[in-house]
Amino acid sequence: MPKILIDPDSRSLDHRFAIIKTKRTDRARYPEGCVTIVAEETAARAGADPGKGLHPALVYGPSSSSEGQRLFYLVRWLT
Question: How far is CA 5 from each of CA 21, 26, 41, rounded to the nearest angstrom?
């Protein structure tokens, strides 16, 4: 995992629990369209369905990429 620079003064960037829809779990960042933010860790775990490519995670973001996309950085998978 890459080192993520945390901006403590940011009002939009934060750690969030999420469900990520992906077949590849080896990436460091995921586009906003693949990430569903949930209120708490139990909701992320409850929404997991690896057979459908839904994986619970702790993410940081959203951040704007140089290509103009909003991205979430993977902090860790909730396994």
Answer: 24, 19, 22
Residue 72's CB is within 10 A of a number of other CB atoms, namely: 23
User: Please, where are the H alpha helices in 1-79?
Assistant: 41-46
For residue 53, the 8-state DSSP code is T
Cα separation values, 73 from 21, 46, 51, 64, Å:
14, 21, 23, 11
pLDDT-based confidence at residue 4 (cuts at 50, 70, 90) = low
Predicted TM-score (pTM) of the model is 0.84
Give the Å distances, CA to CA, from 56 to 6, 7, 34, 37, 72: 21, 24, 12, 10, 13
Asked whether 26 and 6 are in contact (CB, 8 A), the reply is no
